[in-house]
Amino acid sequence: MATADVYNMDGEKVSETNLADEVFDVPVKQHVLHEMVTMQLTNRRAGTAATKGRSNVRGGGQKPYRQKGTGRARAGTRRSPLWRGGGVVFGPSPRSYGYKVPKRVRRQALKMALTSKLQDKALIVVDRLDFEPVKTKRFVEVMVALKTRRALIVTDRKIESLELSSRNVPDVKVLRSEGLNVYDILRFKNLILLEPSVKQVAERLLS
Question: Which CATH number fits domain 2-28+101-206: 3.40.50.300, 3.40.1370.10, 3.30.420.40, 3.30.56.10?
Answer without folding.
Answer: 3.40.1370.10
